[in-house]
Amino acid sequence: MKLPVFLCASALALAFSTATHADNIFRISTGSTGGTYYPIGSIVAAGVSQPDKLQVSAQASSGSVANVNGISRGDWDSGFSQADVATWAHRGTMIFEGAARRTDLRLIANLYPETLHVVVRKDSNIRSVADLKGKRVSLDVPGSGTLANALMVLEAHGVKESEIEPQYIKPHQATDRLLDGQLDAFFFVGGAPVSAIAQLAASAAGIRLLPITGAAAQALRNDSPYWYEYSLQPGTYAGVDAVQTLAVGAQWVTSSRADAAVVYQITKALFSEATQKALQAGHPNGKLITLQSAVTGAGIPLHPGAERFYREVGALK
Predict the structure, then answer these.
(1) Could you give the domains of the chain?
(2) Looking at 11-20, 89-98, 130-139, 279-288, which range is the least confident one?
(3) What is the pTM of this model?
(4) Which residue from 133, 142, 189, 190 puts its CA 20 to 30 A from 40's CA?
(5) How far apart are CA 163 and CA 139, in angstroms?
(6) For residue 82, how many other CB atoms are within 10 A of its CB?
(7) pLDDT tens across 156-199, in order?
């Protein structure tokens, strides 16, 4: 499957400052504040910072596509990305076909599963993605992994972008419009529970999540092997029963230009007892960030600093 190159064009990415920064600052580009990347990134940044030695900061962004582009441009020291987006960028495939390969991308750690959400109001008569034809649908913002994935999901269900009324807005804006009746559905890929979606589920309107199953799900998995079947358990969101969907790994990515000693130290700190406790207490997905899964699903090379740590602790042979 080929998707438009315009999705990864720098004109669509969030504009970031390229001003030089102090050597003891290491920046993590995350995602929107209503998603999962930002709160997880904030916990990680606090956990791996070293007073008077290294200050790690988490900053909001448009998401995966903007992050990998920004890392390659040198706008960010590191960032979070879906495994599929990072791999496409590194290989110059899918939405990055025809663009320069981001061959400098390197993996620090695989983090947690990101769930594909297609959200409608509880009282909606929309029962499947195919029912979205003619509807007002948010696909997330340009530069996000969600936008790339949403177009793939629509295509797998036989729905063209021209057959919906697309909106390109952030999750918290989408939840507000869905609640006010200005939107019929929205896509979001993120670690469940996503705060913006959880707040909407707890409202009087309530929500349903559309299933991603059958031939469409298989087509998506064939096109991108980084997708895997995932079942959201009852109670993940208030009033929502179990739903079968897909998920993809969230990864912490950096550049080959990043200092190996620094990456070694932050990788070691990520899996320290203190940071692990903070992650487990700070976010439902924090407990899924484990040493056992840190190198799984890697579609890009490990950064030498991270690789050194994983070999020392036996996570790599």
Answers:
(1) 5-112+250-312 (3.40.190.10), 114-248 (3.40.190.10)
(2) 11-20
(3) 0.86
(4) 142
(5) 13
(6) 31
(7) 999 999 999 999 999 999 999 999 999 999 999 999 999 999 99
